[in-house]
Amino acid sequence: MALSVRRQPRYKFAAPVLSPSCLQKLCVPWEFAARLAAGAGDVHVVDLLGKPRRVELCVRPRPDGGVACWLGAGWPEIVRKNGIGEGWSVVLRRERRGMATLTAFDPACCLVRLCAPPAGVTSKTRPRFIKLLRPDDWEKMTIPDEFVQQHLIGLESCPSSQKALIIGPTGKLWPVELDQRQSDVLYGEVWAEFLTAHDLSQGNILLFRYEVNMSFSVQVFLPNGCMKEYPYLADEADGPSTALPQSAKQLVAATVSKKRKYNRQVVSAIPAPVPAIKAKKVESQSKPAGVLRGHSFTKQITSSSLTKLFAVKRTFCSSIGLVGACTIELKTSMESTRSWPVAFNIANTYGYLTGKGWKRFCRDNEVEEGDRCTFKVVEKMVWHVVIN
User: Which of 78, 67, 76 is nearest to 100 (CA)?
Assistant: First the structure.
């Protein structure tokens, strides 16, 4: 059976073993908040019943220069209606801007399903369990007993092979030994090698998904709940990408602009202000030249757009003076100096955004198949992109 990982999984946040305070407000790292929304405001969380519920994403600067983010109003209602309690674990998966899907795990670390499939229909949701790594797990890790009873008891392959196939987040396969006396215990040299190879230690969170025949795919989370990203997920020619859609500073600045609640002292409390000379440049870019004013188009992203090239009608290119190969600067915020240089070429009746720069732009900004992107021409070779 060939197993491969084709695309980077959607970004997730994991919160293991909820405390009573987490039932009232759920703290999330700013890295996740920045991917979920441009700043403070309402987002939607699809709960265990499949219902989208409105939740307030709160963003506040901390005295130490960091940013505090949490799900506030609306979160306690999700907790109550879904029966989530102390000791549970939750995972939020970003679907698109402003929307995330919630999955929950009971105190036994097993996936909770509130929506059962109709009789005779197999659920598309594969069994999962979550583990917060502790010191004892370095030598051996126990699969939750409830998970074993529900999904592994009676499997013919389990007692005979005494191996569990772990599919790591990089796509590599790890045949890990099962205890001869306890088929629910992972141990041995390969297990230790798996932990070492992925730089895992106490506090990391592992999300196991059961595939078939004692094989599990694993996603890794940092102690703060953010997904741990690995180099393979980036285009090998580009190398790993650790860039985020926006910095903590920009996240707070966006909140200030959006709600008009903070004064200049709040914004200046965030480190690394934009130099004055660059600010002037951004300001000049934010004012489109008269000849280009109103030039924009919206297009849905396809799988081909993500992996190969993004086509632009030649009539549009001609209308703004693009008649040959050049480099276009893509920006997601005109208040930021961050931009992505992308190769542009003309062929037949279309112009194309392509190459490493285009792939990096899509990766850094979490552009996914099905997203709708609006390209607004600021200057001939400077485009502002709004991703929906």
Answer: 78
Q: What are the structure tokens assigned to 306, written together? A: 């993500």
pLDDT value at 213 more than 60: yes
Whether the pLDDT of residue 225 is over 70: the answer is yes
pLDDT at 6: 40
φ/ψ bin of 75: left (φ > 0), alpha (ψ from -120 to 50), beta (otherwise): alpha
CA 99-383-245 angle, 5° bins: 35
CA distance 325 to 94: 36
Pairing of strands 26-28, 67-71: antiparallel
Percent of the chain whose predicted confidence (pLDDT) is above 90 = 38
Residue type, 177: E
Q: Is 73 left (phi over 0), alpha (psi -120 to 50) or beta?
A: beta
**CB under 8 Å to 131, separation ≥6 — which residues?**
109, 137, 141, 205, 206, 208
Please state the separation of Cα 37 from the chain's center in Å: 12
Angle, alpha carbons 251-268-250 (nearest 5°): 15
Q: Residue 245 corresponds to which tokens in the numbers above?
A: 């859609």
Q: Bridge-partner residues for 52, per DSSP?
A: 46
Q: What is the pLDDT of residue 370?
A: 82
Would you state the structure tokens that stand for residue 64, as one six-digit string?
A: 């130490």
Burial label for 199, CB within 10 Å (0-12, 13-18, 19+), is: exposed
Q: Are strands 382-387 and 326-331 parallel, antiparallel or unpaired?
A: parallel
Reported as half-sphere exposure (CB side, CA atoms, 13 A), residue 324 has a value of 0
How many beta carbons lie within 10 A of that of residue 325, not counting itself?
12
Report d(CA 110, CA 88) in Å as an integer: 9
Residues in the chain: 388
Domains of the chain, CATH where assigned:
12-232 (2.40.330.10), 283-387 (2.40.330.10)
Distance, in Å, from the CA atom of 45 to the CA atom of 31, rounded to the nearest integer, reads 17
Task: Tell me what the mean pLDDT of segment 74-90 comes to.
Answer: 96
Mean pLDDT on 368-387? 88
* Closest to 344 measured CA to CA, from 316, 374, 323: 323
Do residues 316 and 294 touch, judged by C-beta distance below 8 A?
no
Closest by Cα among 252, 248, 247, 226 to 39 = 252
Q: Which residue has the tokens 């004692």?
A: 214
* Cβ within 8 Å of residue 277, ≥6 positions away: none
The reported pLDDT for the residue numbered 65 is: 83
